[in-house]
Amino acid sequence: MRLPEEKIDEIRRAADIVDVVSDYVRLLPSGRSYKAISPFNPTERTPSFFVSPEKQIYKCFSTGKGGNVFTFVQEMEKLSFIDAVKFVAKKVGIDLSQYERQASPIADKYGEEYDLMAWAAKRFHANLNAKEGKAGLEYLLGRGLLKETISKFGLGYALDSWDSLCDAAKKEGKSLKLLEEFGLIARGEKSDKLYDVFRARAMFPIFSPAGKVIAFGGRLLVDEKDAPKYINSPETRLYRKSEVLYGFNFARDEIRKKDEAILVEGYMDVISLHQAGVKTAVASSGTSLTTEQARLIARLTKHVLFVYDGDKAGVRAMMRGIDILLEQGISPMVLFLPNDEDPDSFAQKVGGEEFLKYANARKTSFLDFKIDVLRSSDGFSDEERTRNSVRELVGTIAKIPDELGREVYLKSLAEKLDVSLGALQKELNALLKRDAPKRFPVPKPASNPKEAESSAQNAPQKNALPVAERTFLKAMLESAYHGNEVLEFVKEKLPILRFKHEWTEKLARFFLERYEARDKNSPFDPTRELNYLDDENLRNFVSELLIDEGISERWQPEPPSVYARRCLMAFLDATRKIIAQTYDDALSENMRALGAETDAAKIGALITERNNLVKAKRDAEAEFEQTVKSLAGTH
User: Mind giving me the DSSP string for 196-219?
Assistant: First the structure.
């Protein structure tokens, strides 16, 4: 997709970053900004994430991340820039269909990979309507799925052939290398010949949160010795199983609306529930819920209904999963279905409305569920087992991040088990103390100088910037919201400015280049230019510079003209110091050389050099003062 810069900017200006961010975290007013627990830092307990509605940027001070509405969506949804723009455009109701077939002027990361996966999904889906794919369509219809549901979830069939997909890819010029990398085709060990990995299988495309096909699951439909019933795509740069919930792209809006998610195990559980109208269902695609999957849910709701299978594996998975959900501030409930039923069969048997009625009448708290499981497995049959079970239950309560929540459940546990609240509190405190390093991790120090050097190079280096250079950049960017005088000054004087930190030079040149390339009829907006700042560390640093005053209580609200003048004065003062420092550094080096030199001729040359430096400094300061007078006189 090719999007003109003006269209991208139109979308950015139409989107309120506060509204977009509010879909993921709960924002609280903080002066002229908003604050929240960081969505990027799962261990955070004190808000370090700030959003400025005035400048339409965000900054997370615990992780260093920052940017505008597009970079936020990129981070949260794991999207390329163009896909993030499309995501925001859809949210604000801007139609981009006229640009769909055009190539993008901005690199669309993983664009070829996403296109290839979409192509494969369409091939598998089209097979259902082919004579050779009759078995696939009959299987899906036989499972009670409607054609509309099959189409919605993009279900398909991999033909019972060794090279159907491989041959089609060759004919259509698709990348065999990528198909092999993504586990759709493989190379024979002996023959070195390429063949299809998925054969004679019902195909379930797995989607990213933004609705991109990133992987596949395949269910075998023929008898094949030693072949697994289900196989899945390998992990790739598009697909990390632990970070994906099946059906999340279909369920997200309904989860947010209903403020609850139903968590099931498999593909068919999700599909049948959605077909029945229960559209908050998502699956962990296996029996092990991960922290990353829990975080996905926690963005939208703090209420989860666990509906795993009631067999031993399902119960064990829920016992572990409850603790993971609690750590993310989620309050899980548990539902057991009638014997021999799973969410797929039960939803198809009774329908969505009756399913929800049954769930509301039979769901139980995570604490009652765990007590029942431990009791049914003789966890309270003697004193030793009872002590271990109580400790396990207190350990679960310890996962709750909210102190008041822990207190409420601890009192409930004391009543249910007839155990002293004081004893439970003592056990809880010991657990919290023991697990404090895990709950509030401290960064591990570098184990050797090389590691320390590498870490320092890769980490945000804001503290390394001299105060004058930081002020220079801050004032230059702030002033752009009120006019172009400072940018014009920097353009004129940049050749004589010498900066100590490479970031200052890079950012000054970057913003000047963008300033020169702008539409001369439009104001220069630094927030807009974050779209084109590829260096993530620099983008994060600029976001901090822009938001810094917005989260500070030092400044009272003031008229734009007064603020513009303050920006100008701060900029001029910082520039004066930078110019002086350039000469002062040279003079210090000259003095050091003089003190170490014994040769008379070289000493004479150094003295001449020093005199020239003193004169050059005086001239530069005089010229700068004239500029200051002319600039100050216009405000």
Answer: ES--SEEEEEEE-TTS-EEEEEEE
Write out pLDDT tens, residues 456-513: 344 444 457 888 888 888 888 887 877 787 788 788 777 777 788 888 888 988 988 8
Strand partners, 67: 58
What confidence score (pLDDT) does residue 453 get? 37
Average of per-residue pLDDT across 302-315? 90
CA distance 371 to 549: 51
Same domain for 27 and 89?
yes
Q: What is the CATH number of the domain that holds 366?
A: 3.40.1360.10
| Beta bridge partner(s), residue 261 | 304
Predicted confidence (pLDDT) per residue in 160-196, tens digit: 999 999 999 999 999 999 999 999 999 988 778 999 9
SS3 content of the chain, % helix, strand, coil (to 5): 55, 10, 35
Phi first, then psi, for residue 190 (nearest 5°) are: -95, -45
Residue 341 has pLDDT above 70, yes or no: yes
Domain containing 481: what range?
466-632
Grouping H, G, I as helix, E, B as strand and the rest as coil, residue 242 is helix
- Spell 245-279 as b/e; 16+ CB within 10 A means b: bbbbbbbbebbbebebbbbbbbbbbbbbbbbbebb
- Examine the domain organization and report whether 345 and 200 are in the same domain: no
Q: What is the pLDDT of residue 572?
A: 75
The per-residue pLDDT for 559 is: 54
| 198 touches 218 (CB < 8 A) | yes
pTM recorded for the entire structure:
0.71
DSSP string, 578-627: HHHHHHHHHHHHHHHHHHH---HHHHHHHHHHHHHHHHHHHHHHHHHHHH
First to last CA, the chain: 44
Work out how many domains the chain is built from and give that number: 5
DSSP-assigned letter for residue 341: -
Using CA atoms, how far apart are residues 609 and 447, in angstroms rounded to an integer? 46
109-123, 248-262, 370-384, 455-469: range with lowest mean pLDDT: 455-469
Neighbours of 136 (CB within 10 A): 28
In the predicted model, what is the mean pLDDT of the chain? 85
Q: Which residue has the higher pLDDT, 455 or 197?
A: 197
Helices then strands, counting H and E runs in the chain, come out as 27, 16
Q: Is 449 contained in some domain?
A: no
* Tokens 């029942």 belong to residue: 372
Residue 591, number of CB atoms within 10 A of its CB: 12
- The backbone torsions φ and ψ at residue 130, rounded to the nearest 5 degrees and listed phi first, read -95, 155
Q: Which phi and psi (to 5°) does residue 201 adopt?
A: -130, 140
Question: Which of the 8 DSSP states describes residue 246?
Answer: B
| Per-residue DSSP letter, 306 | E
Do 176 and 162 lie in one domain? The reply is yes
For residue 519, CA distances in Å to 68, 157, 300, 514 come to: 20, 51, 39, 10
